[in-house]
Amino acid sequence: MAERSFAREVEDLKLGAGEIFSGEGILAITKALLQSGVSYVGGYQGSPISHLMDVLADARDVMEDLGVHFETSASEAAAAAMLSASVMYPVRGAVTWKSTAGTNVASDALSNLASGGVTGGALIIIGEDYGEGSSIMQERSHAFAMKSQMWLLTPRPNLTSIVDAVEKGFELSEASNTPVMLQVGIRSCHVHGQFEAKDNRRPEFTLREALENPRRDVGRIVLPPASFNHEKEKLEQRWPAAVDYVKSAKLNEFFGPESGDVGIILQGGIYNGAMRALQQLGLADIYGNCRVPLYVMNVSYPMIDDEVIAFAAGKKAVLMVEEGAPEYIEHTLHTLFRRRDIQTRVSGKDVLPRGGEYTAPVLAKGFAAFFDAHAPALLGNRPPVPDPSEVLADARVKALAEVVPPRPAGFCTGCPERPIFAAMKLVEKELGPHHVAADIGCHLFSILPPFNIGGTTMGYGLGPASASAFNVEADKRAISVMGDGGFWHNGLATSVGNAVFNKQDGVTLIVDNFYSAATGGQDIMSSRAQNPRRKTNNSIVQAVKGIGATWVRQIDRTYDVAKMRDTLREALTSPEKGPKIIVASSECMLNKQRRVKPLFAKAVKEGKRMVRERFGVDEDVCTGDHACIRLSGCPSLSVKHTDDPLKDDPVAAIDNSCVGCGNCGEVSEAAVLCPSFYRADIIHNPTRWDLLLHRVRGAVIGWLQARRQRQRLVFAD
Amino acid sequence: MLNELTITAGPAELAAEKPITVAILAMGGQGGGVLADWIVALAEQQGWVAQSTSVPGVAQRTGATIYYLELIKARPGIRPVLALMPTPGDVDLVVAAELMEAGRSVLRGLVTPDRTLLIASTHRSYAVGEKEKPGNGIGNPLVVVDATEFAAKKTIAFDMETLATRNGSVVSASLFGAVAASGRLPFDKAAFEATIKAGGKGIEPSLKAFNAAYDRTLKGANDTLSDKPVKRLDPLPASAGHPRLDALLQRIRTEFPPEAQAMLYAGVKKLTDFQDVAYAGAYLDRLGALLRADVAAGGGAHGHAFTVEAAKYLAIAMAYDDVIRVADLKIRGSRFERVRREVGAKADQLVYTTEFMHPRMEEVCGTLPKGLGQWIEDRPALFQWFDRRVNKGRRVRTGTLGWFMSLYALSSLKGLRPRSLRHAREVAHWEAWLAIALDTLPRNYDLAVEVIACRRLVKGYSDTHARGLSKFDRVLSSLPLLVTREDGAAWLRRLRQAALLDENGDALNGALATVATL
């Protein structure tokens, strides 16, 4: 069950011809797949395409009506391999993932797929996680398209263009027997817009038909001699076929005047930003009118030589606008112009930054430099472009840099991973700092304050593997962390299997929160929820024992900080050699609250006796040293100033967003912090017995309190 | 590719229209997305074209994130080309869901005097970096106010969080109300309300918060923020209603200069509550002596700063936290009431508290009479034997008879406190500290005042307390170098501030190294 429900959005997937779809880009892509008569869809969740997986999961009825098979792939590699269904059979398939991270994982299958080629359309929708909001290394998926010869679509970032790219992408794939990558940026995935829907299409040829009438062709299998033919085929048949289709279908677009001294070549994805920059330079307007010839590459690979040459013809210079490094297209452009001896100057990363996002200001600056050099007249009287530099230079604004705190994403309120790292910090205090190999997932937030734990991160499910070099005699052991998501993605074999086989004498901590939490709470193998369409509840402990791990400890409540600490200490000091695996399990609080809150409210409404727990701090006991916060960082555990003139520093305070996870109490107990924390059990709909007991206690306690109050001689407050 | 632009002609006249640009800065889960969706729905319903984008990623979890919208009146047959990210210096409306996010929007250049209306909630949600400091790490709100006042064309700033909560809703609703009242979007109030009603969930509370914020915005004035926490320093009352208490008041009134009286009253209040009237009397005796030294050192000219500071920190030192104190505080009726208030329990609900206590043999010995406590501590084996039995976490359910009685009994040991080992140690510590201060006083008045203020470093329990003590000692170890210096006081203040920057005192070590080079 994903964090966000798309029940309402799923209705939009049923829209018919002529109706207007209004919503998020990622949902538009989903609708486009159904309009294209896709037979099967797979993928691995991850920002920015998580919602595509979530909406498909929620759309099972629509999918079943259309006979579309949807798979929650175990990894991007599994998803990519799934596309082999389109090698021999005329079935359209689409897979999706976060790139470049996911494409790295998938590239083994992709290379094989691209070598043999496809019969049915094979579409790879990649969420290019680049620029602001990205959570991964800044690279370009373009390289994968080039090295394996897959076509790369980069449509303009509006819903109509993106949907069109999906539909045309399948046709291109079929016309050239080549897998096609469709690249959408973070913002395009989340852009809200509209497009005119078409009817959904049932696949003409079903997977069932394929299964029941199997075909084979040794020529499609990547083995010599076929593999050598594939290379030839790629260059001599598939490439020209693709070029012909792209030209005839007019996938690339020309805007602005027919002719001009200079022109701009850009990838579709950058179009809106480029238009805004041109607008600021007085060369375009909000409706797409433009004073400069534009050649928009909705197909970034392959480059359509004739189109480029025709565009460059009669121009003094063209500017290649290509985001990210290296500038592959610019290189190709230079090669082409030299080969054809075309004298048009090619500009690009000489006036634009080599890396980083091409925002409107960045582009405006680059465009201005380009026009200055080759067509200064265009800039006319140079209207002022938006420029905050004067404001930013002011001392009052500069002073902000000292005060405005960085606010990176962190553990949620009540996160079950918090106590794990609190325990690690406590162990650190005893045994000193250790080398900690981190992984991908929410637990990576441990590298941030207040925990500051974790030295490296090498990839999904690779935490323990990334510590394998430290399998040597030493007085300290390496600790590696891995989430349940990473564990099932490939950690079981690549990290745990590797550690068992090589007798890796280290500690592996597997954070089991019942979901693929960081990507939006999707179910995975070890999810505890019952999912009618998937087999969940597969034990991580059984799995690691199954591949030979012997020292395995299961902690069923990560909030038990003392136990967590003692288990870690044991793992770090145990005389036993080989991998020591701790599986720390507690449900992701974000998803738990989403599950439990309604149930609780319902039960209370029905008059059932329910107990809500939350924590608090006795401010007169708290001395404001904030040791508790340095072991927590929970959003609901904050600070506040009291009006007590004898307290200089703000005291700890817990707000009503507290979900009563228990970390505060456990930590103050385990770390011997101050006794100011209390847990309040709030009994809703108390029973008669509760009330009686409370009355009795109240009577005695009240009497004693009154007595003490009488004895006490103090100033009235 | 289907070209949605009907105009692709060349140098046709360029249209002059520009979209209204809106940036929303919020923290993940704070409802920035809801606000963005509302604005889009509102605009589309009013026949406008609206485009919104965001970069959620993992920022959906507590991190700072930004939503960007562009709105433009629809023109038949033409689709505008709207940008997916804000251009600094080109934003008409910035909505910040928290004060520091408002500051961030200015830092990002999104707020400029020529065009930007800034709507900001002035409440604070402290970042980890602010909360984790051993001292006061809270960012100065006035810096943000100065910057926004300067950078924005107009600023609408008040606590929309509290206002929303008071109306049973969340900040997005009150922000929407402020946006409506600001008039920056060309849609009338009814249209805004219709959007909320069309939304579905929690309509009533949303509308209440929306309207409250709408009216509050029309009032005009922004909330005034302060960087000084409001401290309650009551003036000396005429009478406290009991001769023995009045005697204390009388002493403060007659024996001490006016500028010290309020702080002394606060101290006396704290200490009568901590122990008894006699104890508060002893406090006044000690301060009397300090005052004489102060006067002798020409304190009059300094507004008796030494006495005032001593009145504060000696009270804190004398009201040390021991098990008796904690037990006493936990069982009070007033505390039971406060807990009910804090957790927002309704009249028909029962509330029980569980305290998380971790007594160690140190605390036990501290509570014992000096001789006995010392005797046990001098016998490590015996001490360990006890400690193994004592030293463990205990969940104390104060609302149950058994536990309440135990705490009640513990708190009645108050009488033994003055003879306890802990008390002897505390007295020794504060006397040593005062001796240093008194020794410094005649030679460097300001420095002596700072010496007193260094007591602020001693706080917390167990390890934290130990670390506090060591910081206190390390800071004061620099005195010989500072006592002869004009700027000695300033340096000691810097050292104290450094000591409050991080847990291990790394910043302090750096500062001490600097002082050593003076």
TrEMBL record, chain A:
Q: Which GO terms describe its molecular function?
A: indolepyruvate ferredoxin oxidoreductase activity
Domain 4Fe-4S ferredoxin-type intervals:
613-644
InterPro entries in the record: 4Fe4S_Fe-S-bd (IPR017896), HACL1-like (IPR045025), Pyrv_Fd/Flavodoxin_OxRdtase_N (IPR002880), THDP-binding (IPR029061), TPP_enzyme_TPP-bd (IPR011766)
The yes or no answer to whether the keyword Lyase is present is no
| Keywords, in A-Z order | Metal-binding, Oxidoreductase
- Enzyme class, UniProt record, top EC level: oxidoreductase
The record's Pfam families line, in alphabetical order, gives: TPP_enzyme_C
Under which EC number(s) is this enzyme classified? Answer: 1.2.7.8
Gene3D superfamilies annotated for this entry?
Answer: 3.40.50.970
Q: What is the protein name given in its UniProt record?
A: Indolepyruvate ferredoxin oxidoreductase alpha subunit
UniProtKB/TrEMBL annotation, chain B:
Q: Which residues form the signal peptide?
A: none
Q: Which GO terms describe its molecular function?
A: indolepyruvate ferredoxin oxidoreductase activity
DUF6537 domain segment(s): 261-476
InterPro entries assigned to the protein according to its UniProt record, in alphabetical order: DUF6537, Pyrv/ketoisovalerate_OxRed_cat, Pyrv_flavodox_OxRed_cen
* Cross-referenced Pfam families: DUF6537, POR
Residue ranges annotated for the Pyruvate/ketoisovalerate oxidoreductase catalytic domain, each copy included: 28-215
Record keywords, A-Z: Oxidoreductase
| Name the UniProt record assigns to this protein | Indolepyruvate ferredoxin oxidoreductase beta subunit
Show the taxonomic lineage: Bacteria, Pseudomonadati, Pseudomonadota, Alphaproteobacteria, Hyphomicrobiales
